[in-house]
Specification:
The protein is mainly α and 345 residues long. It is built from 16 helices and two strands. A hairpin with a 2-residue loop joins strand 1 and strand 2.
């Protein structure tokens, strides 16, 4: 075992790590989906970008595979081969897919990765059923793993947090922009940790657990993943207002058009500046998104979001530095954390 500061093989760059881990997990993930009822399996395959409606093969992007990478690197950081973390990677990826299927229904989103969402392509009821099947399959995969009950308990705790975060996110939509009922940055931070960070932390922690890591290491990787989740969500919020549509797949100012209570907006509203007061008035009357974006930036919302993402990236690195981790996995975990937080900020 070596620490992050020890002489060690040079870590791969984050894109290479993500590619390596996706390739390692892909056969097991496909085998797991193959256990499902054929119709449910088709919807799952469609959600992963493997097929079109009806089952014809497709080559759509299935995402970065961040959770898969965290699971494999968690095992490697514990000194085990990456394959020890494959069941964790498969289970967490299935749960992530389940959460997206249900999120898209709750949010009414009709497209994901430039394709119709599963509920839009197959219907709401079938999409709910496919999500349920993915969740059940994830539990089955972990129950069969070497950690068995301990792994299922870890996943269950993360799922409880995920549901809590989703509930808060839905409730935020009905809260006032200003006044006693307004959403504050601290509430947002807790929501993001639960909704996004819990599953990222679970991925890394499960990998470490299956790799035979001691409890302190499992807990440290969970903390690092949770910080990454907050940073990742805040960066997404920045991109949701100012991101390049060619990269994000969303129109410019998309989150403002949808009146989402994102971190830059909440930080701007809480700044106490003249721009914050003008922004509050504009949001209350449903004004022009471009004007709102300019006021968010003027009130310091964009700068505050960038600083928040950087703070949690640093906190994630500190969590990793607090325990002994095997190289080069330790460095590759840091590479992924930095890569995901750096996205076009």
């Amino acid at each position: 075992m070596t620490t992050l500061d020890s002489v060690a093989p040079a870590p791969l760059a984050a894109p290479q790590v993500l590619d390596r881990c996706r390739t390692s997990v892909a056969p097991a993930l496909r085998e797991a989906v193959g256990r499902l009822h054929p119709w449910l399996g088709e919807m799952a395959a469609y959600s992963f970008g493997w097929c079109e409606v009806g089952g014809a093969p497709a080559a759509a992007s299935g995402g970065k595979g961040v959770r898969q990478a965290l699971a494999l690197l968690g095992a490697e950081a514990a000194g085990a081969p990456g394959r020890a973390g494959v069941p964790a990677a498969v289970a967490v990826e299935l749960v992530h897919a389940f959460s997206l299927l249900h999120d898209d229904i709750m949010d009414g989103d009709q497209a994901r990765r430039r394709r119709p969402t599963v509920w839009k392509a197959y219907g709401t009821g079938p999409a709910v059923l496919a999500g349920d099947a993915l969740f059940a399959l994830a539990v089955e995969i972990l129950a069969e793993s070497r950690a068995g009950g301990a792994a299922v308990r870890l996943l269950s705790a993360a799922l409880a947090d995920l549901v809590r975060g989703q509930a808060d996110d839905l409730l935020f939509a009905s809260r006032d922009w200003t006044g006693p009922g307004q959403v504050g940055p601290a509430e947002y931070r807790a929501m993001a940790e639960h909704k996004t960070g819990a599953l990222l932390g679970c991925a890394a922690a499960l990998g470490a657990l299956l790799g035979g890591a001691p409890p302190a290491t499992v807990a440290a990787l969970d903390r690092a993943g949770r910080h990454l989740g907050i940073a990742f969500q805040v960066v997404d919020d920045v991109l949701g207002i100012w991101g390049d549509p060619a990269v994000t797949g969303k129109p410019v100012h998309a989150d403002l058009r949808e009146r989402k209570k994102t971190y830059p907006v909440l930080a701007a509203l809480g700044s106490g500046t003249p721009a914050a007061r003008r922004l509050a008035t504009l949001l209350e009357r449903g004004g022009e998104p471009a004007e709102a974006a300019a006021l968010v930036a003027e009130a310091g919302g964009r700068a505050a979001a960038t600083a928040e993402a950087r703070h949690h990236a640093d906190a994630g690195k500190a969590a990793l530095a607090g325990v002994s981790l095997a190289a080069p996995a330790a460095g590759e975990l840091r590479e992924i954390l930095e890569f995901l937080v750096r996205r076009d900020l």
